[in-house]
């Protein structure tokens, strides 16, 4: 059985950038290129390879700020500011780093990295192989199923909360697919979609645990407190669209080659790019982990 590591590239790069950006140290090289995000990206990237020991690796990316979700809800993620100017040149360079590792970058315009990860994870698991997803995004927890684990990065390098079918309910108190209905009810301030106004996380958890799904809850709406009944009726449209926004799309039109994803450990190629192109000193800090 192969073991695929699916990496959320945006999550690693953003985390790496903001870990040092607050100090004002952008690690600018002689080419006037900031590299602090790349430095952090490499820390997380190589650590995940060291910890999870995959046979195959794919790195997934967002491809622009507009996706099909903006067509469903115009305000989706509209609260997010443009990335800092010091981060912008590091997006393409991070993908070049992945290229230097001989690992495929995958992203599809109109879809988020989450959707690409969900599509790949399903295809790979359905073929009988094992998947580990590395991200800082709890939205991906809905993807946990047989042969699919999700490792959420915690503070510091090397700290992960790993979710699988054996421990998920104990950790979360829900089943993975119920995460979608939970977020549909409570909304998501980070992604800027509303849910049902007046229903927060605590109430949403209680409702999903009791009724198991939004559909079953609505079928038994007369048993709910009057206040919640009113909210569900008033914000019915918001609930419907929030549910669509919360669900990761698993049918992105993408292709991948199992052969191209094999982790080859071509250290000389990696060292050349990190040292000669990016001007990182002591690249062994990363190479020694892989």
Describe this structure in words.
The chain is globular and about 65 Å long. It has a six-stranded mixed sheet, sandwiched between helices. The chain folds into two domains: 3-172 and 248-287, Rossmann fold, CATH 3.40.50; 178-246, Orthogonal Bundle (DNA polymerase, domain 1). Helix 7 packs across helix 11 (236-246). By secondary structure, it is an alpha/beta fold. The protein has 13 helices and six strands. The protein is 44% helix and 10% strand.
Helix fraction bin: 40-55%
How far apart are the first and last residues' alpha carbons, in Å?
21 Å
Order of helix and strand elements from N to C terminus: EHHEHHEHEEEHHHHHHHH
Total DSSP E strands: 6
**CATH evolutionary superfamily of the largest domain:** 5'-nuclease
General shape: globular
Radius of gyration: 20 Å
User: Strand pairing plus helix content: what structural class?
Assistant: alpha/beta
Strand numbers in spatial order across the main sheet:
3-2-1-4-5-6
CATH architecture of the largest domain: 3-Layer(aba) Sandwich
Range of strand content:
5-15%
């Amino acid at each position: 059985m192969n073991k695929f590591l699916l990496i959320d590239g945006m999550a690693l790069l953003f985390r790496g950038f903001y870990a040092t950006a607050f100090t004002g140290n952008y690690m600018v090289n002689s080419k006037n290129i900031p590299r602090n995000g790349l430095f952090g990206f490499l820390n997380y990237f190589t650590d995940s390879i060291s910890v999870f020991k995959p046979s195959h690796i794919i790195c997934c990316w967002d491809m622009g700020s507009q996706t099909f979700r903006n067509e469903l809800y115009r305000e989706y993620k509209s609260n997010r500011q443009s990335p800092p100017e010091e981060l912008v040149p590091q997006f393409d360079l991070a993908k070049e780093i992945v290229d230097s590792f001989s690992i495929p970058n995958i992203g599809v315009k109109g879809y988020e990295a989450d959707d690409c990860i969900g599509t790949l994870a399903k295809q790979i698991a359905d073929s009988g192989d094992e998947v580990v997803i590395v991200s800082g995004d709890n939205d991906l927890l809905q993807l946990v199923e047989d042969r699919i684990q999700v490792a959420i990065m915690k503070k510091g390098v090397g700290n992960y909360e790993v979710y699988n079918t054996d421990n998920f309910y104990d950790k979360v108190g829900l089943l993975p697919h119920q995460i979608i209905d939970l977020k549909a009810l409570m909304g998501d301030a980070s992604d800027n979609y509303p849910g049902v106004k007046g229903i927060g996380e605590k109430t949403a958890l209680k409702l999903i645990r009791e009724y198991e799904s939004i559909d079953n809850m609505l079928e038994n709406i007369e048993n709910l407190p009057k206040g919640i009944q009113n909210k569900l009726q008033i914000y019915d449209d918001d609930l419907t669209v929030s549910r669509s926004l919360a669900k990761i799309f698993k049918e992105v039109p993408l292709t991948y080659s199992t052969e191209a994803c094999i982790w080859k450990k071509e250290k000389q190629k990696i060292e050349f790019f990190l040292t000669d192109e990016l001007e990182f000193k002591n690249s062994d800090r990363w190479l020694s982990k892989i």
